[in-house]
């Protein structure tokens, strides 16, 4: 098992786990926010403008943490500095 | 066990786990949202338009995190840059 | 243990786990949705049309995450690109 | 330990775990649905027709995820493409 | 440790675990259903006919997931295709 | 460590774990059912006939899952087909 | 480490774990039943006859699952067929 | 590491774990029962005779599961048939 | 690593874990009982005699399970039959 | 496996896990805050100014802990002092 | 790694874990008792004498389980019979 | 694998885990505090000054525990005394 | 790896884990006590003297279990009898 | 891998884990205390002086357990007696 293989395997596994575990939290959080928004709407239909606006701002911030994980995952697959180092090194040989 | 095998095994396992674990969170979250939507509808039938609209926007955002996981999983199976690297390298030899 | 065996073993285990773990979340979520739908129906029988419609849309979206897992699982068993690669490679030898 | 043994062992273990873990979620979910149906019936006996109809549709959808797991399990035991490949390969030798 | 031993060990362990883990979920679910049925009966004795009928249909569906696990377990012990393959192979030698 | 030993060890451990883990779920479920039966009796003493009858039917169905585990456990100890195979094989030598 | 030792070690560990884990569930369940019986008695002292009778029947059924585990444990220590097989085999040599 | 040592080590570890894990369940259950008894006494001081009698019967049955574990533990330390077998065997040599 | 060392190490570790894990359950249970006793006293100061008496009987029974663990732990440290066997055996040599 | 490979693998895996696990907590916390903000808005629409202001300050502080994790992750990928040390050392040779 | 080292390492690790895990339970239990005492005092200030007396008796009994763990820990560090045995044995040589 | 590599790997992994796990607790705690602050504001808008002041002091103290973890993490990456020791030692050679 | 190193490593790891795990329980317990004290103060401001006095006594007893862990930790770092034994032994050589 | 390396690695990992795990408990506890303080303030604004004073005393005591962990962590990094021993020993050689 040479070095580039090991880097590749580590990148693949980490990319998958980062996205899957990192999406759990935001998914739960968004589910909770949406659920509460719905109960709030049912309870106070007049405040629907404020509620939906606050909901979307909140969803955007929660989604941002999911985006962080997806970004790290994409960096590891498509712009991995360690992988590039080894590939250029191999080419250089 | 040569290198391509290892990459393949890691990709298979990671693809499966990413989808299965990554779908848990969104599934729970959607279940929660739908459940609350139903109680809200039962509680305030007049606000059904606002509720279902907010519900569908929320479901779309939650589904997006499940899509991230599915996308990573599909990339690992069908467009894996590490696998392609090794395959082209093997062909080149 | 040659390479094709390893790919096969990894595919079998991953296919099984992906389906079994990936079905837990949707099952719980659907159970929750159905349960709430029933309490809502008991609470507000007049809104049964809206409730059942929202329920079925929600169940469809939750079922979609279970379908993702089942699809990944079927791909790994019947249309596995890594397996096909090794099989054709073996034949080619 | 030759290759067919390994495939067989992996198939046996995965088939068992897929069914046992995959049935947990649906079992819980059905238990929850049935339990809520009963409380709803006790609360609103007049809506029993709608409630039992919704319950059976819901149970069918939840049972479907258990069926997915059972199907994967049966495929792994009785129609395993990897096992068939190795058996025919062994015969061919 | 020859091959048949390994198959036998894997079958024994998987058969046991499949039944024991697979019975947990249905047991909980049935307990929950029965418990709710009893509270419903205490709350609305007049609806006892509908309640017990719904309960028994529900218990039957939940029991079905336990039966799946028991069936897989029995198949692995008494009608295991992998075991039969190796036994006939050994006899054939 | 010869083959019969391994089969014996696997059977012993699996038999024990199957019973102990498989009895947890039913025990909890029965405890829950009995507990709810008692609260129901305290709440509605007049319905004691229906309640105790439903309770005993429910307990019987829950107990059945415990029986499945005990049966598998006893099969593994006293009527283990794999063990019999190896014993007769050893005698035959 | 010869074969009888291994059987003995496996029997000892399994016997202990079977009893200890298998007693957790029934203990919890009995605690729950007794606790509910007490609240029921405090709530409805007039129904004490029915309550205590139902409690004892319930406790007997829950205790039965603990007995299963204890029986398996005792079988493994004092009437272990695998151990007897090896002992008689050793004596026969 | 000869055989008697292994038996001794397994017996020591199992004896300890059996008692410690096996006492958790009963301890929780007794705590729950005593706690409910106290709330019941505070709620209905007149029924103190029935409550304390039911409490002690319940505690006795819960304690019985703790006793099972302690008995298995003591058997493993002081009346271990496997240990006795090896000791007499060693003496016989 | 000779035999007495192994026995000593196993005894040390088991003694520690038995006490630490075995004390968790009783500690929780006593905390629960004391907590409920206090709420009961605040709720019904007139029944303080019955409450404290029941509390102390209950605490004594819960403490008994902690004592079991402590006793096993002390036996393993100071009156370990396996250790004594090996020590006398070593002296005898 | 030479040294730089090991550093690279450790950096990849740690970077992924740091982001994915580190984003769970903040995601949950933000979900909780947004959810409570929505219920508060529904309950007291007049205080919407204070509520949204407090919400955004709170979200900013919670997001800061997610940022810490993302920063550590980025440092490990793009500005890793250990990696730089080894790279410059390799160049120097 | 000679024998005394192993005994020392096992004693150090066990002593630490015994105290740290063994203190969790009592800490939780005391926290619960103190918390309930405070709510009881706020609810019934007149019964403060009985409440604080019962609290201190309860805390003493809970603290006793923490003391057991601390005692076992101290025995393992400062009065370890196994360690003393090996030290005297080494000196005797 | 020489010594500096090992120190580097341990530092990288520990730095990542310290930040990611150490940020979970504070994130949850801040989420809880902010959530309660919002409900308090909705409940008692007049006390908004005291509430927000107490909130910010509380958030500062909770954030301090996150800072501890971040500081330890940064020390391990940029001011690691063990790493410096080995680097200077290597230079000295 | 000589003996003193092993003792040192075990002491370092155990000291750290003892403090970190051992502080969790008391921290939770103190948080609970303080939280209840605050609700009690808000509910019954007149009893503030009794409440704060009971709170401080309770906090002192809970803190004592944290102190036990810290003491064991400090003993393992600065007054470790096993370490001293090996150091003096090494010096004596 | 020589001895000083091992000590360094153990110190690094333990220091990180001690701080990260040890800060979880206090963070949760402080979050709980602050949250209750806020609800208390909203409920009883007049008692704000007593509440904030009690809150700060409580936070100080909870923070103390976090400080213990941080102190142990800093001792392990900057004043580690085991590390110093090995360093001086190496210098002495």
TrEMBL record, chains A, B, C, D, E, F, G, H, I, J, K, L, M, N:
Site description Reversibly protonated during proton transport, residues in chain: 63
Entry annotated with the keyword RNA-binding: no
Keywords tagged on the record: ATP synthesis, Cell membrane, CF(0), Hydrogen ion transport, Ion transport, Lipid-binding, Membrane, Transmembrane, Transmembrane helix, Transport
Topology versus the membrane: Multi-pass membrane protein
Entry keyword annotation includes ATP-binding: no
Subcellular location: Cell membrane; Membrane
Pfam families cross-referenced by the UniProt entry: ATP-synt_C
Leader peptide range in chain numbering: none
Family membership noted in the UniProt record: Belongs to the ATPase C chain family.
Function statement: Key component of the F(0) channel; it plays a direct role in translocation across the membrane. A homomeric c-ring of between 10-14 subunits forms the central stalk rotor element with the F(1) delta and epsilon subunits.
Official protein name in the record: ATP synthase subunit c
Originating organism: Prosthecobacter fluviatilis
């Amino acid at each position: 098992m040479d070095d580039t293989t090991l880097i590749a395997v580590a990148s693949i596994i980490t990319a998958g786990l980062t996205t899957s575990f990192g999406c759990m939290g935001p998914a739960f959080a968004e589910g909770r926010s949406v659920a509460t928004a719905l109960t709030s709407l049912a309870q106070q239909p007049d405040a629907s403008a404020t509620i939906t606006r606050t909901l979307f701002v909140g969803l955007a911030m929660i989604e941002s943490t999911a985006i962080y994980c997806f970004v790290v995952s994409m960096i590891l697959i498509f712009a991995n500095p360690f992988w590039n180092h080894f590939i250029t090194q191999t080419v250089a040989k």
